[in-house]
Amino acid sequence: MATTPDESSDSAPDYRDMAPFSLETAGHAFTFYPHGQDRLRALIELIETAQASLRLFYYLFDSDTSGTLVRDALIAAAGRGVDVALIVDDFGNDAGADFFRPLVEAGGRFAVFSPRWGTRYLVRNHQKFTIADETRVMTGGANVSDHYFAIPADNGWCDLAVLIQGPVVAQFIRWSGLLETWVANEAAGGTRQLRALRDIVKTWDGGDGPVRLLVGGPLVRQGHWAWVLRRDLARARRLDTVSAYFSPPRSFRRQFAQIARRGAVRMVMAGKSDISAAIDMARLLYKKLFVAGVRIVEFQPCKLHMKLLVVDDACYIGSANLDKRSLRINVELMVRVDDAALAASLRKLIDHMEAASMAVTPAWYARKATFLNRMRWRLAYWLSLADYRVSKLGAR
Fold first, then answer.
1. 3-state DSSP call for residue 138?
2. What structural domains does the chain harbor?
3. CB 247 within 8 A of CB 384
4. What residues contact 27, with CB distance under 8 A and at least 6 apart?
């Protein structure tokens, strides 16, 4: 049970991430990693055990201790003959090109997702995934940086990654091939690249089974991961979300309120962030939600970065936030798994997080929502769509 704003949050330093947990369904094996150090070990092991190929796409890659460990594991893999290809978003490439030169010298390939100046410049590759030997894939919200693997006591990002084996891996392989081709064409000065990227997303078919790879991209509606989510929301009676960045369009907020009126909605929001405006833009939208019956809590132990949605028995795990960028602009991926047992397991994870969170109450909100605070919140909300070099909202 979440604490109230008047209760002490001294228990936050005692918070512990849950241990990894596994589940098999529909011919797939899933292992979830809520704990940062477990995520790092699993990623390194995935790279070290690869025998033939590695394909990696990350929004952010840093040159710190964790980034160096991952890079060096990739260099070692290339040295033993593994075909290694890494793409990092230009804005998220905190390490710099020189950091990856040893990988290229070892025989690996490194490229940057870097749309040229123009209408497509604001589009970011926000995905995070690694494919090993075309049989295993690790994805989720975590980038490659110490922040994403640190423990809660050190204020690391609270996040989630999943290791998947099963038929959906073939979809990841196909998707990564399309992205690699687009990046190569962009680097070569190809024309109509924004249209090409939109067409890739618009024509993507992630299948119609219980385990699907859904994707998103700039200004695409039908076929977008959010389009599928909207259909799930239209008939849902229960919704549980963990959202590090929350600024969805009004149409989605209306659906959340409708579910609350006919069932139950619980939302875990960020109580701490490296960007205070991320909290501001979410708070701007709280009032109408909790008036409709949505239960809102703010996670207290450390920075929140998780992207997790459970709509009845449909579970969404991947890179996308519930914000306008993830819903309308960025290149994103979400794995949708329709399974009651997995939904129950992920709700237990959310229960665990809620117990370390502060409940948002009308009285607390009334004290916070002063005129000046509301103006600041509104400014943060609109800046969330700006160039990341102006506003880093939703950038992680």
1. strand
2. 20-383 (3.30.870.10)
3. yes
4. 166, 167, 211
The torsion angle over the Cα atoms of residues 177, 178, 181 and 183, rounded to 10 degrees, is: -110
For the chain, 396 residues long, give each residue's pLDDT as a single digit of tens: 777 665 544 445 589 999 999 999 999 999 999 999 999 999 999 999 999 999 999 999 999 999 999 999 999 999 999 999 999 999 888 899 999 999 999 999 999 998 666 556 678 999 999 999 999 999 999 999 999 999 998 889 999 999 999 999 999 999 999 999 999 998 888 888 889 999 999 999 988 899 999 999 998 888 899 999 999 999 999 999 999 999 999 999 999 999 999 999 999 999 998 778 889 889 999 999 999 999 999 999 999 999 999 999 999 999 999 998 899 999 999 999 999 999 999 999 999 999 999 999 999 999 988 989 888 888 877 776 554 444 454 456
Cβ–Cβ < 8 Å for 319, 128: yes
Q: How many CA atoms lie within 13 A of 269 on its CB side?
A: 28
CA atoms within 13 A on the CB side of 343: 17
